[in-house]
Amino acid sequence: MKVRVERDLLVESVAWVGRSLPSRPSVPILAGLLMEATEGQLTLSGFDYETSHRVTLPAQVADPGSCLVSGRLVADIVKSLPHQAIDFHVDGAKVMLVCGTARFTLQTLPVGEYPALPEQPPASGVIRSEVFAQAVSQVAASASRDDTMPVFTGVQVEIEGSTITLLATDRYRLAVRELEWEPDDPELTATTLIPARALSETAKAMSGSTLTLSLDQNAAGGDGLAGFAGEVSGGERWTTTRLLDGSFPKVRNLMPDAAAIQTRVRVPTAMLVEAVKRVALVAERNAPIRITFTAEGATLDAGSGEEAHASEEIEIQLTGEPVTVGFNPTYLLDGLHAIGTPVAQLAFTQPTKPAELTGTTELVASDGEPLTDFRYILMPVRLHG
Predict the structure, then answer these.
(1) Which of 55, 80, 181, 190 has the fewest CB atoms nearer than 10 Å to its CB?
(2) Domains and CATH numbers, the chain
(3) Per DSSP, what are the bridge partners of residue 375?
């Protein structure tokens, strides 16, 4: 193999493929970055048996071929090189990397022992990548990071025709986002559970292109695959990830019924974010902050009188009954950052029942409808005293 490629394209591509390389591989061969040179292009691949990444980029190929090298070592090397073309030349069991006056000789790994990458499932439809990336970022933060309960580490993707619904929960909050896409089959109905981390990284990496979604409809749970493909920075990227096995909890009953809502509060998002951050400085770890919503405004309290204590009042618009509720400040801030609108709306049925946080653009018109494509359901924390 003998190939020349632009340094900047290579740095970005190697970094992306490197995300699928395990830091502590169960099989040493999985630490390898597979490089395959064909006419006019270089393909880089990585695989850890759960997630695969593949990218093609334009290259000057003098001699087609393939090699397998340490992915993390190559990533560190190319990132440190000057902004010049990089040449790769395979000579027996070694590969030589040359950029300007810098030269590296690396040991190759046996290509024949590298596992075959999974095939991309058949395309299911397309969506604007920036819309998908924003939706995933809103939802994925609510997925659990506790691997002892895998089902909560995923994002459930529900497809009904031209509507995709993303749901994630860690049992303390629930994030729901609806968005439109263009399915190949207008009657398509599907439900899959995709690891949140893989989905989040893929959505970010594919931003800037039209994203093709692929779902393996013939396999369920841990035997199924989700695939994503898009064109970025002059090259094409593909990724597959194995679906999570298990049943996502029936969480829709946590969403407050509009007819049962007793209190609605509207408040400038930035104002509430800053107030929560300040008051939470004195809250002990995992301790809630208390918020009292009345017609006169909202009062935020945290800490105890015996030690540090903080209190702040902000202006709000309240419709309905006054309410006092306790929230985990981190979870509340996550939701406020996720709604992405200048005004936040909180809806309550009872102080002990889940509250709904949505975004809206209007503060004055109390009868205006919220922007309901994203809903954040937050469990209150029991207050003592």
Answers:
(1) 80
(2) 2-113 (3.10.150.10), 123-242 (3.10.150.10), 255-378 (3.10.150.10)
(3) 176
